[in-house]
Amino acid sequence: MSDTSSHARIRIALARFCVAHDIDFEALYAALGIDATQADAEALSHMAGVLDGMSIAARRIAEHGIEDWAKDR
User: Fold this and answer.
1) Alpha-carbon torsion 34, 39, 43, 47, what sign?
2) How far is the C-alpha of 22 from the C-alpha of 31, rounded, in Å?
3) pLDDT (tens digit, 9 = 90+) per residue, 7-51?
4) Are 52 and 59 in contact (CB under 8 A)?
5) Phi and psi (nearest 5°) for 25?
6) Distance CA 70, CA 44 (A)
7) Least C-beta-crowded within 10 Å: which of 12, 24, 27, 41?
């Protein structure tokens, strides 16, 4: 078994961190020096999908807590 976290687990951990520290994902990308205007269309589309998913997870974690965020309502 690998010691490396799955991409999904990393995204959830990052979403939790951002919620705990009130960090906006767009501000995070800017702080990392990521310029979406310079990315190719396919990469930008993928990043947008990942950001949307992380934003939804972060919002639901903030609203429902880490234990209940993924439950259907």
Assistant:
1) positive
2) 14
3) 878 877 887 888 888 888 778 878 888 777 777 778 777 777 887
4) no
5) -65, -35
6) 26
7) 41
Encoding tokens for residue 47? Answer: 């990043």
The CA-CA-CA angle for residues 8, 40, 55, to 5°, reads 35
The CA distance from 73 to 66, in Å, is 15
Scanning the chain, the segments in alpha helix (DSSP H) are 7-20, 25-31, 41-64
How far is Cα of residue 46 from the mean position of the Cα atoms in its chain? 12
Domain boundaries, the chain: 7-64
Residue 51: CB atoms within 10 Å: 16
Tell me the two tokens of residue 59: 């919002």
Tell me the pTM.
0.51
Count Cβ atoms within 10 A of the Cβ of residue 35 and give its class: 0-12 exposed, 13-18 middle, 19 or more buried: exposed
